[in-house]
Design a protein that fits this description.
Blueprint: E1 2-3, H1 14-20, H2 40-57, E2 64-69, H3 72-82, E3 88-91, H4 96-105, E4 110-112, E5 132-134, H5 148-157, E6 161-165, E7 181-185, E8 196-201, H6 226-259, E9 265-266, E10 277-281, H7 287-293, E11 297-298, H8 314-318, H9 323-326, E12 329-333, H10 340-363
Parallel strand pairs: 1-11, 3-4, 3-5, 5-6, 6-7
Antiparallel strand pairs: 2-8, 7-8, 9-10, 10-12
Helix pairs in contact: 1-6, 2-6, 3-4, 6-10
Length: about 375
C-alpha cells in the first residue's frame, strides 16, 4: 500500500513510539501511575507530562500556556465556547471543527470569503462588533497558507480575539504570529491519536467545557495519559528539529507529482501552499471509480472528514469550483516517510487510470 493521505493522519514516528513505551508498562512497572496522584510514581508520571508540555510549547509562540486536550476538535471547541465571544467570524474554508462550534455559539456567525486561489484577503473587512476571528494557518483540503499574522494584527486592533487552527501547520511551519488561541493535534505531526493541545496567550481567560477534578489549570478536567503526552512531546521535538529537512523533502515530492499528473488542474495557490498537499481536478474524472481501481494507493477525494458524505467539498465550492469539477478532484498528501519511488509509482498509476477513463468515455459515445 502506498500511503498518500497525510492530511488525514500521519504515521507514528518511531521516536514517539519509543517515548510512549515506558508509560504503557504493566504492573511490573510504575509507568501506569496516575500523573495527578501525590505519591512518588504519580509525581514521576507528572514530571513526564510537564517535560512533554515543554516540548510541545517549543512549537508555539512564547508568552502563553499549553493545555492538553483529547485532540484539536476539543481544543477548538474549548477556545470558541470558552472565550466568551458572542459575535464571531470565520473563513469560508475552515474545518467543521471550527465552523460548527462557531455557529453553535453565534448562529449569525459570518464567513470571510477567500479568492479563487483559496486565499483570504489580509485586509478583508471584519463584521462590526466581531469579538472572535477564526482563520486556519494551512487548509487541510487544498494546502493554502493564510496570512494569519496580518489578520491577527487587525483582529487585535479591532478588539477581537484571534483563533488559529494550526493543525496542518504545527511542526511544519513557524507558529502563527499574533494569535491569542492556537489549536494543534499530535497525530498530524507524527504523534499519537487521542491528544492535542490548545495554546492560550497569557491574559486570555477561558471558561472550561468540562468540569471535574480541575486538571490542566481548571480548563480540562480528566486524567491525562502520560503515554500520549510523551508521544506528543517526542513528535513535537522531532518535528522542530527536522522542519527544514522535512519541507525540502516534500518540495521535491510535490514537484515530481505535479509533473507526473498531466491534464490535472491545481486547486489552490501554487505559491502560498504547503508542499505536502496536492489537490487537483481533471475534466470528467470519476473519482469514486478511480479510487476503486487503485486500491493499493491511499488517497482522498476531499478532506477525510467529509469523504463519504456525498456532498461536494465546501472548500472547493468556496474557491469557485463548480460542482462537477469539485467532484472530479483528488487530494494527495505527502509526508516525512513518503518515498520518491512511491510518489512516482502512484502518480503513474493515477495518470494512466484517469487517461483510461477518458478514453473509455470518449469511446462510449462513438
Amino acid at each position: 500500500m502506498i500511503y498518500l493521505d497525510n492530511q488525514a493522519t500521519t504515521p507514528l514516528a518511531p521516536e514517539a513510539r519509543e517515548a510512549m513505551l515506558p508509560w504503557l508498562a504493566g504492573p511490573e512497572s510504575s509507568g501506569f501511575a496516575n500523573p495527578h496522584s501525590p505519591h512518588r510514581p504519580g509525581r514521576i508520571a507528572a514530571a513526564a507530562v510537564e517535560i512533554a508540555r515543554e516540548k510541545v510549547a517549543a512549537l508555539l509562540p512564547p508568552g502563553g500556556r499549553v493545555v492538553f486536550t483529547s485532540g484539536a476538535t476539543e481544543a477548538l471547541n474549548l477556545a470558541i465556547a470558552g472565550c466568551g465571544a458572542r459575535r464571531i467570524a470565520y473563513s469560508a474554508i475552515e474545518h467543521a471543527a471550527v465552523s460548527e462550534p462557531c455557529r453553535a455559539v453565534d448562529p449569525a456567525a459570518e464567513e470571510l470569503a477567500v479568492d479563487g486561489k483559496g486565499l483570504i484577503d489580509p485586509d478583508i473587512p471584519f463584521p462590526a462588533g466581531a469579538e472572535l476571528i477564526c482563520v486556519m494557518q494551512v487548509n487541510n483540503e487544498i494546502g493554502t497558507i493564510q496570512p494569519v499574522a496580518r489578520l491577527a494584527e487587525r483582529a487585535r486592533a479591532a478588539g477581537a480575539l484571534f483563533l488559529c487552527d494550526a493543525v496542518q501547520g504545527a511542526g511544519k511551519l513557524p507558529p502563527p504570529e499574533g494569535a491569542d488561541l492556537i489549536a494543534i493535534s499530535a497525530h498530524k505531526l507524527y504523534g499519537p491519536k487521542g491528544i492535542g493541545a490548545l495554546w492560550v496567550r497569557d491574559g486570555v481567560r477561558l471558561e472550561p467545557l468540562m468540569r471535574g477534578g480541575g486538571q490542566e489549570g481548571g480548563l480540562r478536567s480528566g486524567t491525562l495519559s502520560p503515554a500520549l503526552c510523551a508521544g506528543f512531546g517526542a513528535a513535537a521535538e522531532l518535528a522542530l528539529r527536522r522542519m527544514s529537512e522535512d519541507e525540502a523533502h516534500l518540495q521535491a515530492l510535490w514537484q515530481v507529482a505535479r509533473a507526473a499528473l498531466p491534464g490535472f488542474t491545481l486547486n489552490g495557490s501554487a505559491e502560498q501552499r504547503w508542499p505536502g498537499n496536492l489537490n487537483a481536478w481533471r475534466e470528467g474524472l470519476d473519482v469514486a471509480r478511480l479510487m476503486s481501481d487503485l486500491r493499493t494507493i491511499a488517497f482522498s477525494a476531499g478532506s477525510a472528514c467529509a469523504s463519504g458524505s456525498g456532498k461536494p467539498s465546501h472548500v472547493l465550492r468556496a474557491i469557485g469550483l463548480e460542482e462537477k469539477k469539485a467532484r472530479s478532484s483528488i487530494r494527495l498528501g505527502f509526508g516525512r516517510y513518503t518515498r520518491m519511488s512511491e510518489v512516482v509509482e502512484a502518480c503513474t498509476q493515477i495518470a494512466a487510470a484517469a487517461a483510461a477513463q477518458q478514453e473509455f468515455g470518449v469511446a462510449g459515445h462513438d
